[in-house]
Write a structure and sequence with these properties.
The protein is of the alpha/beta class. The chain is rod-shaped and about 155 Å long.
């Protein structure tokens, strides 16, 4: 019955806890037992025969030393449940013969002693057993066995002496034994209760940890787990000077599936994607995680060449291009992958993730469905952006910003009807910085409105010197029209400039429109009431639909130059421009075509019905002081052409 108690499948954690608590007390128990036993042996050294007074305790000592050394070695061991069960079963087996051996030895010594020596036997048995029982209390069965054997022999033997002192001692031991057994039983119950409570707490903690680190939808590690692993691997790789990589992948076409079939199908698709990625990342050094939405990540925890990393990314893309069978449909998506390596392309976990993410979105812009590795050029580009942002923080906008003007002409006779204001930045130490770089940087930093206000003041001041029939076209950012403060500042500049709002066209992009369509409509309406014209810039390159055109009080549309660049060779561009021109004609909107650079462009667009255009064919952007001269030269050329 006792052996069955210590089964490995019966609360293995309790077995380990018992072993640890028990092993810490055993060396002390055996040490006390040996000291007390040799003290008794010394008392009887000259009274009892040597076999009983010397050899017998020597044999017991060897046995105790062996057990003491065993428990001494094991006091700091973290055992398996199997090891703990085996040790506890063995102890429970040995406790009876050990208790019997010391008790019988004590009783055998008793007749050889005088009254004092016999009192020592009683003292030895009564006190030593108390110590042993309390040391054994973490294993209740062993404590009970020891108490019943030693105190049973003690009680029966000393009652049989009929000596009043020893009889009283025997009765006292009975009472003490009862009290000790109650304490041992209570302590053992509290001990097991505490261990079980700790186990429940640990189990709950593990469950919470599981919930905190596993994505509930796909059942693969989540964003939190990914960054924990990434930080740990970065720390280790830094110490060992190892190289590894992070790949971030984004699903191409997932939004369309979600919109077409619904979120339930979208969630199911993500589950299947997760399982397919798990099957692809079977190796131990590939750590997969879902970062959120349709974005996943893989930590490639080994030193691979760039070609090998591309091959892993290519394999992932290939697996995800294969059709997915959902409940009511078969869908096909793709994936774009960005990869960055440590430590050559990033010095810490945060930079490594950001660089992999940068590579991903560079790839999505340039070639979807492929693998893009973060490169030295990308690193230089990021550094350049950071430098530009730093320069913007220190810039004197009033002194360093200027406005150039590019004419917008009527194609039929090339007569200029307006000028578009274009921002230029001459930095005090870095020289000329392109608006392609500093405008996005100012938008990221949230200071674009400061630039817009400065540039608009300069543009309005310059345009006030032009002929009254000449219009000004000025670009507004999304921040200018989507914040009340930004729009109020723009309106203030216009009204205080003295320039007629009726001669001003404000250009907005499709991206700005889509941020908050209703708010944009309200802001544009207020600008129209002020008298300004509103142009939708770069039409055809974003996501604006016909419903947006109807919702906004627009006066003009600009067709992006990307459709004009190869219009003479590209049939698709030709059809797009033709359709856009027909659309603006039907909606009674003026239309300006950007990017005219050759006479062939002019001929094709004129044939398609374009009325207004802008591009290098007519003029490059001009500084403010050259506009008047360019207009005079143009009038002279027209006069000469008219005189023939």
């Amino acid at each position: 019955m006792l052996r069955a108690y210590w089964r490995v499948d019966d609360q293995p954690e309790l077995l380990v806890a018992q072993y640890k608590a028990f092993s810490a007390k055993m060396p002390m128990m055996y040490l006390i037992l040996l000291v007390n036993s040799w003290a008794l042996a010394h008392t009887y050294l000259d009274l009892a025969p040597h076999w009983l007074g010397l050899y017998f305790p020597a044999i017991l000592t060897v046995m105790c030393v062996l057990r003491l050394s065993f428990w001494w070695r094991g006091r700091h061991v973290d055992p398996t449940p199997q090891v703990a069960a085996h040790a506890l079963r063995r102890t429970n087996f040995l406790v009876a013969p050990i208790a019997l051996s010391f008790s019988i030895w004590s009783v055998l010594l008793f007749p050889y002693g005088d009254a004092y020596a016999q009192a020592h036997v009683a003292f030895y048995m009564g006190i030593t057993v108390v110590c042993c029982i309390f040391c054994l209390m973490y294993m209740r069965s062993a404590a009970l066995t020891t108490a019943f054997i030693v105190n049973g022999i003690f009680t029966v033997f000393f009652l049989s002496t009929h000596t009043p002192v020893f009889v009283a001692a025997a009765l006292n031991v009975v009472l003490v034994t009862i009290g000790m057994l109650v304490i041992v039983n209570s302590h053992y119950r509290d001990f097991t209760g505490l261990i079980n409570a700790q186990l429940k707490t640990t189990q709950l903690s593990n469950e919470n940890l599981q919930l905190a680190n596993v994505d509930s939808l796909t059942q693969i590690p989540n964003r939190r787990k990914f960054f924990t692993q990434l930080n740990d691997i970065c720390t280790r790789a830094s110490v060992r000077q190892e190289r590894f990589a992070v790949a971030i992948l984004d699903l191409d076409g997932f939004k369309a599936v979600n919109d077409l079939y619904g979120h339930a199908h979208g969630d199911h698709l993500l589950e299947v994607v997760g399982q397919r990625l798990l099957a692809t990342c079977r190796e131990e050094d590939l750590h997969l995680a879902r970062l959120g939405g349709d974005e996943f990540a893989i930590i490639i925890d080994r030193d691979l060449s760039d070609d090998a990393l591309r091959e892993i990314g290519r394999l992932v893309c290939e697996k995800l291009r294969q059709p997915f069978r959902l409940a009511n449909a078969t869908v096909q998506i793709a994936a774009s992958v960005g990869v960055a390596t440590f430590p050559d392309m990033a010095s810490d976990a945060a930079a490594l993730y950001e660089h992999a993410d940068y590579a991903l979105y560079q790839g999505k812009r340039e070639r979807r469905g492929a693998v893009t590795l973060f490169s030295e050029q990308d690193k230089e580009q990021i550094q350049r952006k950071a430098n530009i942002e730093q320069a913007l923080r220190q810039a004197d906008f009033e002194r360093e910003l200027s406005v150039f003007f590019q004419p917008i002409v009527r194609l039929a006779d090339r007569t200029p009807i307006a000028f578009e204001a274009l921002a230029r930045w001459q930095h005090s130490s870095r020289g000329v910085i392109s608006p392609v770089e500093f405008i996005p940087a100012a938008e990221r930093m949230g200071i674009i409105n400061q630039l817009s206000v400065t540039l608009l003041k300069k543009a309005l001041s310059a345009a006030a010197q032009w002929p009254e029939e000449m219009r000004l076209s000025f670009n507004l950012s999304a921040n200018d029209i989507n914040t009340s403060e930004g729009m109020a500042e723009i309106v203030r500049v216009i009204t205080q400039s003295g320039f007629s709002p009726a001669r001003l066209d404000l250009e907005i992009t499709e991206t700005a429109v889509l941020q908050d369509l209703e708010k944009t409509r309200q802001m544009i309406t207020s600008l129209r009431q002020l008298g300004c014209g509103i142009t939708l810039d770069d039409f055809g390159t974003g996501y604006a639909s016909l419903s947006h055109l109807h919702a906004l009080p627009l006066t003009r549309i600009k067709i992006d130059k990307s459709f004009v660049a190869d219009i003479e060779r590209n049939a698709v561009s030709h059809k797009i421009v033709k359709s856009l021109l027909a659309l603006t004609h039907d909606m009674a909107l003026a239309c300006v075509v950007e990017g005219l650079e050759t006479e062939q462009h002019l001929a094709i667009l004129s044939e398609l019905g374009a009325l207004y255009g802008q591009g290098y064919l007519f003029a490059r952007p001009l500084p403010q002081e050259q506009v008047a001269g360019w207009l005079a030269q143009h009038r002279e050329l027209q006069r000469q052409a008219a005189n023939g």
